[in-house]
Each structure stands twice: as structure tokens, then as C-alpha cells.
Specification:
Order of helices and strands: HHHHHHHHHHHHHHHHH
Radius of gyration: 21 Å
Distance between the termini: 64 Å
Number of strands: 0
Shape: globular
Structural class: mainly alpha
Helix content: over 70%
Number of domains: 1
Strand content: under 5%
């Protein structure tokens, strides 16, 4: 399959400008961004066919990394190959990266001032509510509905979900090996590949999961290695990366405090583009602008490579039942870890009655106010935080 031979109805410049606009004005998280791409590029402009869009979405769901960014990279590849994929990916990510770095600069300068603390007092509580709803939606989408019949049918995935959630709550950390193990186990049970009977091959793949090395030479190398793992091994869209980031940034390396981490997630909510761009904000707080660049590149480079490399052969890959089963198993464990991380972060961030009420109000707003976007909730929470701190 070679998309580059098709005659496009648009120029590469037009497509890059579209993703640049989506990068600085596209709010609402991965689901909304993916919807914008379909509405604009498939339905309105007719630049991308329905089949091409579905192929890109399927690849983005099968591969680890941020869903919206991967889909954008694939759509750039459709008619303009690697150059199109590269330019569209950069155009989509760079605007929000610049925004989070600028916010990081302001956060470092003014973070100790009472008004900034008041803003993030309200924002942090709202973020907990938003993450609760996001984790619920992700659970329903990735596993099944909360019905006895559906849970019974997907009981093994729900078991991975529960185990990962409980382990995350107890240990307050997440392990990539747990996710890989869940994926391999589900694949071997549901759709064992043809080479499963080959003992040597199986051993080599399992041992690959245990070959993660830890570098202690300096902070930038630690940042590069940690965020590369985050980009290469975390499946699921948007906030699915939160538990992995929390485990490394707060627990393992102790680069940020619990409050700073919640603030970092809040920054991702109030900026357009991919939610995962919060890694730039985190990198800046840890090691300034070099840290922001290294964190962003390390996170997005794996998803770029895992989109571009299989793109020409994806139709054949997508039909592989073993690969689908592997991804289903990993996704179940990742979503379970996300729910566990929500519990851990919530227990530390909801410190009083006002923050609890803000979190609950955020959940109710997302449930009952149709089409409301997260940045509006964040803005209201910031105002409430200012008012509460000025009155108390």
C-alpha cells in the first residue's frame, strides 16, 4: 500500500496550515481533536477519504502514544509521505508546546505568589473532577459497558483493569512490565501467534520487557529515558499517560510535588492541542527549556516512528488478531492504572470541603451540560479559587 501515489486535492502547505491552526485553537482533548479532523478533512474539505481516515484512526488506537497526534501524523503521510507526516506532526505539536513553556516560565516566576496559588487551588480541584470523568469514559470505551453481560464477556480484561488499579493504589506507582505482561497474556490466551510454539522466540520477546535500563548520569538523560518510555509503552488517548507520568515524576524521581503535578495536568487542560503536551511543562519545571525540549521530543518521537514505519503496511497489520489482542490487554491494564492514579492523586489533592465541592461540581457539569469543554470549567474554577482565597 502506497498512499503517496494518490493525487491529492490539496497542497502540503494547506494541510500543514490546517494542523498549525488545530494546534493553537483545538480545545477539548483527543476525542474532540479526532472529531475535528474528520469533520474538517473528510466531510467539509474532502481532502482525506473515509477509508484513509479510518485506517489512520485504527493505527493510532493500536499503537502507543497520544491518539490525536498519531492520527495527524498519519493523515500527513497519506498523500505526502514522511515529509508530510513530519511537517503535520510538528505543526500540530509546536503551538501548544510554546504555550506550555510560556506558562511554565510564568509558573516559576509567580508560582509562590498568593494569587497564583489561589488560581491553582480551584483549578487543581476541577482537574480531579475532569480526570474522574475522563477515566470513566475511557473505561467504557476501552473495556465494555458496566453491565453484567458485557463484564462477563470481557471478564479477563476487567481482571487486568482491577489488578492494575489495586496495585497502583497500594504501591502508588505504575510499572511498564505490568502492562506488557497483561498484553502478552491476553494475546497468548485469545489469539496466540503462529510463532508461539517457538520457545526461543517467546523467551526473547519476554526478556525484551526486562531490558529497560536506568540511567543516573544526569537529569537530562533521566528525562529523555523516562519520557521515551512514556511515549513508547503507554496505550490509550489523552489522560491515559497520567498514571505513568505520576509514578515517575512524583514518586520515582521526585522532580515535582503532588501539587505541582496536578497543576501540570491543569496546564494541559487549558491549552489547545494534544493533552500529552503537559510533558513540556513538566520538563521545563525540572530542567528549564532544555528539559522541556528533551521531554517533548522523547515523548513524541516514539509515536511518530510507530506511526510512520507501519503506515505503508498497515492494512495487513490491522487484521492481525494477535496484535489486536496484545493491545486490548495492555489497554485494560493502563486504564486500570489510570483509575488507580485518580484515587491516589484525588486523596492528596482534595484537602478540604471547598475543593471537594469544586471537583464534584466539575463532574456534574460534564455530565449535565452538553458539549461543555474543559477549558471553560478550568476558567470558572480559577475564578472560584481566587474568590475563596480572598474571602478566607
Amino acid at each position: 500500500m502506497d498512499h503517496t501515489h494518490n493525487t491529492p486535492a490539496y497542497t502540503l502547505r494547506q494541510l500543514v496550515l490546517y494542523f498549525l491552526k488545530l494546534g493553537y485553537a483545538g480545545f477539548g482533548g483527543p476525542v474532540a481533536l479526532v472529531g475535528y479532523m474528520h469533520s474538517d478533512l473528510v466531510e467539509k474539505k474532502g481532502w482525506i477519504s473515509e477509508e484513509e481516515y479510518k485506517e489512520g484512526l485504527a493505527l493510532a488506537q493500536l499503537a502507543p502514544g497520544p491518539l490525536a497526534a498519531q492520527l495527524g501524523i498519519y493523515l500527513g503521510f497519506v498523500h505526502y509521505g514522511i515529509l508530510g507526516a513530519t511537517l503535520c506532526g510538528l505543526a500540530f505539536v509546536i503551538p501548544s508546546f510554546i504555550m506550555v513553556v510560556l506558562i511554565g516560565i510564568a509558573y516559576k516566576i509567580y508560582g509562590g505568589l498568593p494569587w497564583m496559588q489561589a488560581v491553582f487551588y480551584g483549578v487543581g480541584a476541577a482537574v480531579i473532577g475532569i480526570i474522574v470523568m475522563s477515566s470513566y469514559k475511557l473505561t467504557i470505551k476501552s473495556l465494555s459497558k458496566f453491565s453484567i453481560v458485557a463484564i462477563r464477556e470481557k471478564w479477563l480484561l476487567w481482571l487486568f483493569f482491577l489488578v492494575a488499579g489495586v496495585i497502583t493504589i497500594i504501591t502508588q506507582s505504575e510499572d511498564v512490565l505490568l502492562f506488557v505482561f497483561a498484553g502478552l497474556l491476553y494475546m497468548f490466551i485469545k489469539a496466540p501467534p503462529a510463532w508461539f510454539s517457538n520457545q526461543k522466540t517467546t523467551q526473547s520477546i519476554v526478556l525484551t520487557g526486562f531490558s529497560f535500563l536506568h540511567f543516573d548520569s544526569n537529569t537530562l538523560i533521566d528525562i529523555a529515558w523516562f519520557f521515551t518510555k512514556a511515549g513508547a509503552f503507554v496505550f490509550g488517548s489523552g489522560l491515559a499517560i497520567v498514571p505513568f507520568l505520576h509514578s515517575g515524576v512524583v514518586i520515582e524521581y521526585q522532580w515535582l510535588t503532588e501539587k505541582q503535578f496536578v497543576d501540570a495536568v491543569a496546564v494541559a487542560m487549558i491549552t489547545p492541542g494534544p493533552v500529552v503536551i503537559t510533558v513540556g511543562f513538566i520538563g521545563y519545571l525540572v530542567a528549564g527549556f532544555p528539559g522541556a525540549c528533551v521531554a517533548a521530543i522523547a515523548t513524541f518521537l516514539p509515536c511518530y516512528l510507530l506511526t510512520v514505519i507501519p503506515a505503508p503496511y498497515f492494512k495487513r497489520i490491522a487484521k492481525n488478531k494477535s496484535i489486536k489482542a496484545f493491545v486490548d490487554g495492555i489497554t485494560a491494564a493502563v486504564v486500570g492504572a489510570l483509575v488507580g492514579a485518580v484515587v491516589v492523586i484525588g486523596m492528596r489533592s482534595i484537602t478540604d470541603v471547598p475543593t471537594a465541592l469544586i471537583a464534584i461540581a466539575s463532574i456534574l457539569a460534564l455530565i449535565y451540560i452538553k458539549k461543555i469543554q474543559e477549558p471553560y470549567i478550568i476558567a470558572v474554577a480559577a475564578v472560584i479559587g481566587l474568590l475563596l482565597k480572598s474571602l478566607l
